[in-house]
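Model it.
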Amino acid sequence: MAMKFYRFLLIYRLQIGLGLLVLSGVLAYTKDWEWFWTCIILAFVAIGSHLFFGPIRLVQEAIQNNDMELAQKYMNTVIFPRLLFKPVRQGYYMLKSNLAMNNKDFAAAENYMKESIKSKSSIVGEEQEGASYFQLGMIAIQNGKKTEARKNLRLALIKGLPDKEFKAAALLQLAALDMQAQRISQARSYFNQAKNLKPQSPEIKEQIQQLNKVIHRVGKTNMRR
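Modeled.
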């Protein structure tokens, strides 16, 4: 019951705050100063918490439930993103980038991710920054910006990534980019580093198998020469 009430407050705190603001005006007119100050303080707390913290928790919850329409609805309630506290603002732009990626709007996704990186806070660790550069690299690949993708993926590895799955994914993407650029030796190096991490994700395992076939085929071709 308490959680439901808390969730209700998160969803409707802006409306509640505005309602309390109107009510405080009425109380001021009637000179009921005791309730006026109670309402005005609660109004500023409700409105301020929405402006400075936003609905990020609700958005994350919606995305986890794969309800992108609801996530977008919550995101649209953020009126002034620049007022969000820096760590919250960084997460806000990252989530906006994720939603844009989901809608195949890669240009918008790239812009939002750059805003996320610009909003980085000392409270957030470098691993979070590394994850941002990783996503920026993946967006650049979708946009066909291979040089930029390579730069951002290398930055992601330097900054650090949350786990070996992320690291393996970044290394495999770098290996694929180097294969396309005919930098075979460097591609093999990245590939072997990714393989040695022994990632468990089925998607990454499949990428390793596919890239292994390509590298093996290129190796045979070079031997014939």
